[in-house]
Every structure is written in C-alpha cells, then in structure tokens.
Amino acid sequence: MKFSQLVGPRASEVVTADTPVPNDDQVLVEVLACGVCTSDIGPWLTHDPAGAPVRLGHEMVGKVIGTGRDATRWRPGDVVTGLGGNGFATHAVMDANAILPVPPGVEPAHAIGEPVADLEEALSRTGISPGVRVAVAGLGFMGLGLVQLAKRHAPGLLIGVDPDPARRSRALALGADLVFAPDELPEEYRTDTGRATDARPSIVLEATGATGGLKTAGSMVRPFGTLCVVGYHHTGDAKMDMDLWYKAVTVVNGFCPDRTRLIAAMRESLDLIADRRFSYAPLITHRFGLDDIDKAFHAMEEAAPDFVKGVVLF
Predict the structure, then answer these.
(1) Containing domain of residue 298, as a range?
(2) Does residue 121 fall inside a structural domain?
(3) How far is the C-alpha of 150 from the C-alpha of 281, rounded, in Å?
(4) CATH number, domain at 238?
(5) Are 148 and 249 contained in the same domain?
(6) Of 164, 160, 200, which is closest to residue 176 (Cα–Cα)?
(7) Residue 245 shares a structural domain with residue 272
(8) 257-283 as b/e, with b when 16 or more CB fall inside 10 Å?
(9) Which of 237, 253, 269 is the last residue of a domain?
(10) 90: Cα separation from own chain's centroid
(11) What is the CA angle 265-57-7, rounded to 5?
(12) Residues 240 and 280 both lie in one domain
C-alpha cells in the first residue's frame, strides 16, 4: 500500500508499506475518496520535523476487500463510509461497527459520511422546526452544508452571513432566503429594535470557527433562542459574550464525542443523500491525488472564491 504522511510544516511525503490486516472487529478497505478536513490544517501548518511522521485523513469512503472474524455484516465489494483514520492512503482499516453502506449510484466523493453526520447531529439538538427563523453565520463548507440541512425543515426565514460574496451567492443557490456581509447586517437582525415583533432568528448556527464570527452569531440570536457553535475553534480564545446570558440564550456545543450518535446521524444523512435532499455536488470543488496532499491543504488555506472543499481521490 501507499500512504501520505506529514514530515514537517506544510510538507508531506508518500511512502510504501505493507497493507494492514484487519482485526476481528475491523474491515480492510481500498480507499476511494477521503475529504480534506479543516481540523487537520493545524498539524499540517505546524508539524515539527524532528517529531515522528503524522498520518491524516478521516473522512473516508472505501470498498471492502477484507473482513475480520467478527465483521460478519460486511462482504468484499461493499462500498462503505464512516468513522476512521489514516485515510490519506490506498488502503485503511475501519471499525466494522462504525461504517455504513454508501447509497447505490452515489459517487464516492459525494458520499463522505463523517462531515455531514457532524452537521446533522449538531442541528438535531437545536430544536429546529417549521416556521422558525434560522441564520447560518459562516458560509464555507460547513455553513453551506447547514444551509441545505436547515432548509429541509422549512424555516420561516433562512439567513446566511459571510464576508465573501462568492459564498453568499452559493448560499442563495442552496436555499438561503437572504444573505449579508457581517458589516452590512441590518439592525433588525442583530439588535432589539423595539418593534412588537422581534425579527432576530430563533436559531443561529455558527460555522465560522473564528471568534469574530462567533460574536456576530451571538449578536443575532433573539432572547430565549438557541446558538449552536458548529465551527471548529482550534485557535485563540472563544470568549463568552455575556449578552447571551442576559438574553437567556441556550448555547449548544455542536461537537459530538459519541460515536453511536454520530453513526445514527450519518444514517439519516446518507438517506438524505440517497433521496437527493442533501448533495455534496456543489460543495466538492477541488479534487486531488495522493501525491497532492500539500496542494490540497494550500487550496484550503488560500480559500479562493472558487473553493469550498477538497477531496483526495484514488
């Protein structure tokens, strides 16, 4: 097998090794696609070349080519997605209890289960229901995914907020009713105007991963509303805005540490993909080979107007 490993800051290399053998409760897959995740850009930027090499990639789709003794639900040839690791490789082992079948007819790049499961699980804890006003702050990959997932609940109004005009345009195409740059957000959507009807959203989904974006999201949510922090805040201090306390806002941590809940959300998400109620097609904008891992992270770092998300294909 071949795999990519991180050997220094912004530096990866492809090496050859023996193909792994699955344990009793694992399957061996031939990796077909692996998404490039924002959570991996930190190690890519800072890895110490004096340290041991690091392997990345956890958003996998693969074809089963071998099974452990207890992985009796799976057969060679099954195309699966799920929770895993070391996915920037031609082959990988995955927990047989943390994978699901890919819907027939869906190409691997459009069937990555883990990212959409994260979003769906977070959204499920917001109490979203038809008719409520919803806002998504941050319209990158996660935010655009949330726009699609929220839209199916028939919100009364779906607002997108992002400084990038290309991202705002994508959000409109995916179902947002209104989009704004943060500094152009109308007063009625971020403060109490004194009107009889509060125009602020009842649910705000933060997907910026930046403290400034978190502040914008907090300013939008109405009293007794819900702020769901979905963005990956891997650097800096995301300080609590005490106005949320005075507004009696419920703050939902969008991260889920429970594999059982994530697999349940993944099952729901894959059904949405099969029914064409969620699509990766407008989100996967860049494709790379195993030798191009550094190019994939460079594209994520630069975040050009045409970029949403990259995926490594095999």
Answers:
(1) 2-114+258-313
(2) no
(3) 17
(4) 3.40.50.720
(5) yes
(6) 160
(7) no
(8) eeeeebbebbebbbebbeeeebebeeb
(9) 253
(10) 23
(11) 160
(12) no
Q: How many residues in total does the chain contain?
A: 314
In this prediction the pTM is 0.95
* pLDDT in single tens digits along all 314 residues of the chain: 999 999 999 999 999 999 999 999 999 999 999 999 999 999 999 999 999 999 999 999 999 999 999 999 999 999 999 999 999 999 999 999 999 999 999 999 999 999 999 999 999 999 999 999 999 999 999 999 999 999 999 999 999 999 999 999 999 999 999 999 999 999 999 888 777 678 999 999 999 988 899 999 999 999 999 999 999 886 667 677 888 999 999 999 999 999 999 999 999 999 999 999 999 999 999 999 999 999 999 999 999 999 999 999 99
Judgement on whether residues 60 and 76 belong to the same structural domain of the protein? yes
* In a domain? residue 152: yes
Q: Residue 34: which residues within 8 A CB-CB, separation 6 or more?
A: 57, 58, 59, 60, 61, 87, 88, 112, 311, 312, 314
